[in-house]
Amino acid sequence: MTPRLTFKILRKDLVLGPRSSIFLWAIILPFALTLVLQVAFGSLFNPEPRLGIVDEGNSQITVQVEGTEGINLTLLDSVEELKTQVERNDLDAGLVLPAGFDQSVRNGERPELQFYIGGESYASSRIILTVTAIDLVRELENSDAPVTVDVVSFGTPGLPISVRLVPVIVFYALVMAGIFVPGSNLVEEKEHGTLMALLVSPVKIGDVLAAKWAQGTLLASVMAIATLMLNDALGPNWLQVIVVVVVAAGLSSMIGLLMGTFAKDSTIMFGLVKGLGIFLFAPTLFYIFPEWPQWIAKLFPLYWILEPIWVVSIMGGSISEVWLELGVAVGITVALIPAVAFVARKVQSQMAAQ
Questions:
Q1: Rounded CA separation 306/248 (Å)
Q2: Strands ordered across the beta sheet of 72-76
Q3: pLDDT digits (tens, 9 = 90+) for 29-55
């Protein structure tokens, strides 16, 4: 293998890469998945209660709700508009604060409080908004709650679904950029005859494979880091995250190289990716459903790269906590080199015979 020739092939692949639809899709996919999974599913599973208020007397309750995190507040001018939005499920609940309401409460009176609840609102949103309204009125009255609640938590607090979906998005970034791009690129070179043209020149098969692997590693690293940044999951130890991501990208690219050398044409390449898709994707399910037995995830090769990314970037851990996983990932990468070389020699022999 000649580094100068490898670099020339790599430069050519990076320059011509944007002409490939697969290359472009590898860049677009993390952004598209972030939009779909984080915006759509994140808002579905973690909705903020939506409260509308018609304040006819500059109530202190409105001021306090505005400063409360986790409640989406909408101020309206008329009671009729408030009712309409609650009926349309544009709001989970509506509160009408008449003029002089605060003073009436402080004077010990019992003014009427109009509180509307949407029939299609989530039960959790109803509870939050109802309890919040009661607490705010009690604060105006300057009275204590009739009971004291002692909250005791058992176990580790669960992570929101938006966080647990990050490994899924990172997985697709690594698969598309690290596996699909170098593998399909190699297959296209076979189909178009450019690989054979390269091999009759001073370029060796090792130069070509090294360039494809470097292309996949570089692109997968960039897209995985971009994915983590998009999802606000890069973490405080960003230098350690880069190391972990590069190891993950190296393994992904080596798997792509093995598929690319084995596949004779694009049909077989797509078949391999589709057939092995569930096998590769399986470890991500254990981050979405943490109650599943975690030891099963270790049976899949991509677990050993997803777990370090999860610990160091998303959970804010140290690289020293995942040295075993990183060692296994590097070991798998090195172990695949002889397999790639063996298949590549067979391909080269077939081309020479032709």
A1: 8
A2: 72-76, 50-55, 93-97, 114-117
A3: 888 888 877 666 655 455 678 999 999
What's the mean pLDDT in 9-21?
A: 86
- Residue 169 CB partners (closer than 8 Å, separation 6+): 30, 33, 34, 37, 38, 227, 231
Q: How far is residue 139 from each of residues 18, 60, 134, 144, 191, measured CA to CA in Å? A: 61, 10, 9, 8, 75
pTM of the model: 0.71
User: Residue 279 is encoded by which pair of tokens?
Assistant: 């096998």
> 279-287 — which CB contacts under 8 Å span 24+ positions?
280/171, 280/175, 280/179, 280/255, 281/171, 283/167, 283/171, 283/307, 284/167, 284/168, 284/171, 287/164, 287/166, 287/167, 287/168
What is the rounded end-to-end Cα distance, in angstroms, of the chain?
A: 24
**CB within 8 A of 191, min separation 6: which ones?**
265, 266
Q: How far is CA 86 from CA 45, 70, 117, in A?
A: 20, 19, 7
Q: What is the DSSP letter of 94?
A: E
Number of helices (H) and strands (E) in the chain: give both, helices first. 16, 4
Going by pLDDT thresholds of 50, 70 and 90, the confidence category of residue 154 is very low
Distance CA 122, CA 128 (A): 10
As a whole number of angstroms, the longest Cα–Cα distance in the chain is 100
The domain limits of the chain are 3-41+160-353, 48-141
DSSP states along 44-64? HHSPPPEEEEEESS--HHHHH
The count of other CB atoms within 10 Å of the CB of residue 71 is 18
Query: How do beta strands 72-76 and 93-97 pair?
Result: unpaired
pLDDT digits (tens, 9 = 90+) for 270-308: 888 888 888 889 999 998 888 889 899 999 999 999 999
Q: So what's the architecture of 48-141 in CATH?
A: 3-Layer(aba) Sandwich (3.40)
In contact, 25 and 222? CB cutoff 8 Å: no
